[in-house]
């Protein structure tokens, strides 16, 4: 029988993974970690990440995934804010942790396995491990498995990406049995997480969607492959080799897949695919259509947030009938489009999206209860997204409210302009954002990456867009970049692109 967990040449059975998690739970308990305490981890896609998630559940603790792109300042903020009592970290990521600031933190070091070391070109020489730290595998083996009944699950405390201000930890209340069951049903509807699934983890295990997907898959999958790092052709090879049927992806992965030579695309048998879900970032329409043409009607899209979980799901058929939609709101949840004046808007009118928490445990922002109150409306919450419902009840997203550009009193949605820019065959990536303008308050700027082998000037792109968009939506500034600051989860750090312009103007973003 094929092992449950696979990564590179390494294999681990489900029984062994669950036993390791139970042993780790005993170890964490011995460290004085209990319900509502925090266990942080900074791990790439590796078996111990799943063991930590499951171990935290055994003792009612919060698992706190840390983005392994974080530098010392960012990592320090999360460790301090969540009051972590333990940190599980890959050895090569140790230099990114300001350990001197946390003398009481129990550090458990995971040796970086060969496939991860190769994928991320980790230094050949191991990092210096503090004398007070323990090696993860030996530490786990030194404890007996946890046998006590688990308290109500608290899940993970995910820190928002912090595109404005510092990252905020989304801290949920314990889930009762009914809520836990509703969450499983939501994972099945939205992510296609079902018993017996054969899946692959393509994205990093620090993002809210991938952590939720991994939690469900670790309990229900028959085969669970961890990709060290996304590679388009390697994904096709894994699908064929292991007859994979389900996965979570982001649009940038689709773009890389579509760029493969036709001969490579035809080389692999993808007939096992049955439910491929994507989200986390907008998907250009031509990319979505091309993936459906290639992989068939197995492509699903969801819209959601760390705070509100999965809000809508669109099948391939939904999207082809309503191009651009992210689906209908979940019928089990309250949903409203709200205008600037607080009025609930009818179909066709654009406003801020609010959604109820039915089927979810309530949450607050860790140490920031006032921020939680700011986003609440009669028990519904918003993360600042703007959109509208069409006459058939399908949701269309316009943009994030905080990303919206107000130029001369006119609301301009960067996502619309980005989608048009991405239709140019020479564009590899783009981001549109507002920059200061003395006359209009804000002007439109675009940062673009040009595909290798193409020659495209800012003037060329301006002329292309002028034939397709109203003049007031045309970027006034177009800057060429080698790459854009984008997370592996697909989200782009627009703050980093905007900041130099606003700092130069002496104004706040």
Automatic annotation (TrEMBL):
Residues 416-491 form the AMP-binding enzyme C-terminal domain. The keyword Ligase applies. Residues 5-356 form the AMP-dependent synthetase/ligase domain. Signal peptide: none annotated. InterPro entries: AMP-bd_C, AMP-bd_C_sf, AMP-binding_CS, AMP-dep_synth/lig_dom, ANL_N_sf. It holds the Pfam family AMP-binding. Keywords: Ligase. Belongs to the ATP-dependent AMP-binding enzyme family. This is Acyl-CoA synthetase. It comes from Marinibaculum pumilum.
């Amino acid at each position: 029988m094929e092992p449950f967990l696979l990564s590179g040449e390494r294999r681990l059975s489900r029984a062994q993974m669950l036993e390791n998690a139970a042993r780790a739970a005993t170890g964490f308990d011995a460290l004085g970690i209990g319900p509502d305490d925090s266990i942080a981890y900074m791990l790439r896609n590796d078996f111990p990440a799943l063991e930590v998630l499951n171990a935290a559940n055994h003792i009612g603790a919060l698992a706190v995934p840390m983005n392994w792109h974080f530098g010392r300042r960012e990592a320090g903020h999360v460790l301090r804010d969540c009051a972590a009592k333990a940190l599980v970290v890959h050895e090569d990521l140790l230099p990114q942790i300001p350990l001197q600031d946390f003398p009481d933190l129990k550090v458990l070091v995971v040796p970086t396995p060969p496939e991860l070391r190769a994928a991320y070109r980790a230094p050949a020489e191991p990092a210096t491990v503090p004398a007070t730290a323990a090696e993860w595998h030996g530490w786990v083996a030194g404890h007996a498995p946890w046998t006590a009944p688990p308290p109500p699950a608290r899940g993970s405390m995910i820190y928002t990406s912090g595109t404005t201000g510092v990252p905020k930890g989304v801290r949920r209340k314990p889930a009762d049995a009914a809520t836990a069951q509703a969450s499983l049903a939501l994972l099945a509807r939205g992510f296609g997480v079902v018993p017996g699934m054969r899946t692959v983890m393509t994205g990093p295990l620090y993002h809210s969607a991938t952590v939720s997907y991994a939690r469900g898959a670790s309990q229900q999958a028959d085969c669970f492959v961890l990709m060290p790092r996304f590679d388009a052709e390697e994904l096709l090879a894994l699908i064929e080799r292991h007859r994979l049927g389900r996965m979570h992806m982001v649009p940038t992965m689709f773009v890389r897949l579509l760029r493969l030579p036709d001969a490579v695309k035809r080389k692999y048998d993808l007939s096992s695919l049955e439910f491929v879900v994507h989200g986390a970032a907008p998907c250009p329409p031509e990319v979505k259509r091309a993936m459906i043409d290639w992989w068939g009607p197995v492509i699903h899209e969801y819209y959601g947030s760390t705070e509100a979980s999965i809000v809508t799901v669109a099948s391939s058929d939904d999207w082809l009938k309503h191009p651009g939609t992210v689906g209908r709101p979940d019928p089990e949840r309250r949903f409203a489009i709200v205008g600037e004046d607080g009025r609930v808007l009818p179909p066709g009118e654009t406003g801020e999206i609010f959604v109820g928490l039915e089927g979810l445990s309530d949450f607050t922002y860790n140490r920031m209860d006032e921020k939680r109150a700011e986003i609440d409306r009669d028990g519904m919450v918003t993360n600042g997204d703007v959109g509208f419902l069409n006459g058939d009840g399908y949701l269309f997203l316009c943009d994030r409210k905080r990303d919206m550009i107000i130029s001369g009193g006119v609301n301009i949605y960067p996502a619309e302009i980005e989608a048009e820019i991405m239709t140019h065959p020479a564009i590899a990536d783009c981001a549109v954002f507002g920059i200061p303008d003395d006359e209009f308050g804000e002007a439109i700027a675009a940062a673009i990456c040009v595909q290798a082998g193409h020659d495209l000037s800012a003037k060329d792109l301006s002329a292309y867009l002028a034939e397709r968009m109203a003049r007031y939506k045309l970027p006034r500034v177009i800057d060429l970049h080698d790459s854009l600051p984008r997370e592996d989860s697909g989200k782009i750090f627009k703050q980093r692109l905007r900041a130099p312009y606003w700092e130069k103007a002496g104004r706040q973003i």
